[in-house]
Amino acid sequence: MDQLKVAVIGCGNVSSVHLAAVVNNPRAQLVAVCDIKPERAQAAGEAYSVPYFTDYHDVLALKPDVVHICTPHHTHAELTIAACEKGIHVLTEKPMAVSLHDADRMITAAAEHNVTLGVIFQNRYNPASLAVKQAVESGRLGKIKGARMFVTWYRPDEYYSKSDWKGTWDKEGGGVLIDQAIHTMDLMQWIVGEIDYLKSAMANRTHDIIDVEDVAEATIHFKNGAIGSLYACNFYTYDAEVFLEVHGELGTAVIEKDKARIRIQGQPEERVYAEGDHEVVGKSYWGVSHKVQIDEFYQDILNGRRPQIDGDEGRKALEFVRACYYSATTGEAVHFPFNEPLGFTPPSLTK
Ligand SMILES: NC(=O)c1ccc[n+]([C@@H]2O[C@H](COP(=O)([O-])OP(=O)(O)OC[C@H]3O[C@@H](n4cnc5c(N)ncnc54)[C@H](O)[C@@H]3O)[C@@H](O)[C@H]2O)c1
């Protein structure tokens, strides 16, 4: 087999990035789209001249090789497990689930049915992220002492009022951490290393219409001795460039959005820019690396390899997020590995 039959489930905002990546990839053939909202399914089906469905079971019955899951967070586990049971490979959007229990069920289903599960964290594929990861792993920064990240974006009330799932603990699974900051949290733990324990606080300070956090901070102690600082909010005045700095004994490396600056003592500063095709489908702050990750996922399936961001790897960012929620709710430090109590849900943070 050198071409995969692919279906996209969920035809909302992010689907445009997936659909463009699928139809422009020679390793894939788009065979169906699906959305529970008939007008969205129809619009995507007609735009790409493929059959469209409103019930994902009808898509799975077609037995595509791969499904992309672009639906609300709380549906990822159900859809993934159903696809795995039909022997279909799954590439799901972040976060892989709203709880670690659901993430574990997804990982188990993929293993039991011998299918490949991948989780989208496209920013790992940005040249800037790869350059900073390489600077750390090669030892050029020396022993890592600290890391700090800032995500300060803008999500007005209308962002939530227009959605039937955002702003809720049960469907979105949280607010600024699980939806927006999770990308940078994933990069932080991927670049700095395993977390030992963390302590976090969160609040809802400006969004009266939602139950979840719109601001959070955390202090993270990594197993290698580094200390991390996290701040995220989505009531800033615009989507400011995300910031992640890694501080080593020999220098610092900074990622700002899709650019990197690496400063090593006694050496000229290195700058890494986003390379190649800058055509942006979707929002620019989503980055441009979906198509790189999607292509690598297809190649991994065709060559029988595990993807770089498989279920276990995708779970790490969710564990980081859920540990913050648990610590912020209980006031306790959370040690890793974090096994959250079954059914744990933070209380409503609405004032
Ligand atoms: N990687 C990124 O940069 C990035 C960017 C945006 C969104 N996302 C992720 O993509 C996912 C979707 O986000 P979005 O902004 O596109 O949401 P959205 O609400 O715009 O779209 C989701 C769509 O899924 C449909 N849907 C819901 N349940 C369904 C079901 N059971 N079967 C079929 N369709 C169903 C909805 O009707 C809706 O059209 C989320 O996981 C989100 O976090 C990722």
Overview of this protein structure:
- By secondary structure, the protein is of the alpha/beta class.
- It folds into two domains: 4-122, NAD(P)-binding Rossmann-like Domain (Rossmann fold, 3-Layer(aba) Sandwich); 125-275 and 311-335, 2-Layer Sandwich (Dihydrodipicolinate Reductase, domain 2).
- It is built from ten helices and 15 strands.
- The strands form two sheets. Strands 14-13-12-11-7-10-9-8-15 form a nine-stranded mixed beta sheet. A six-stranded parallel beta sheet has the order 3-2-1-4-5-6, with helices on both faces.
- Helix 1 (15-23) packs across helix 9 (290-302), helix 4 packs parallel to helix 5 (100-112) and helix 5 (100-112) runs antiparallel to helix 10 (311-330).
- The longest helix has 20 residues, at 311-330.
- The radius of gyration is 20 Å and the shape is globular.
- Residues 9-15, 34-37, 40, 56, 70-73, 75, 93-94, 120, 122, 163, 179, 286 line the site of nicotinamide-adenine-dinucleotide (NAD).
Which hetero ligands occur in this complex?
Answer: nicotinamide-adenine-dinucleotide
Question: What percent strand?
Answer: 15-25%
Specify the CATH class of the largest domain. Answer: Alpha Beta
Count every helix, treating DSSP H or I runs of 4 or more residues as helices. 10
Query: Strands of the largest sheet, in order across it?
Result: 14-13-12-11-7-10-9-8-15
What would you say the CATH architecture of the largest domain is?
A: 2-Layer Sandwich
Mean pLDDT: 95
Measured as a percent range, the helix fraction is: 25-40%
> Secondary-structure element order, as H and E?
EHEHEHEHEHEHEHHEEEEEEEHHE
The total beta strand count reads: 15
Shape: globular
Please state the oligomeric state of the protein chains shown.
single chain
**CA-based gyration radius:** 20 Å
**CATH fold-level name of the largest domain:** Dihydrodipicolinate Reductase, domain 2
Total count of domains: 2
Low-pLDDT windows of residues:
276-281
Distance between the termini: 56 Å
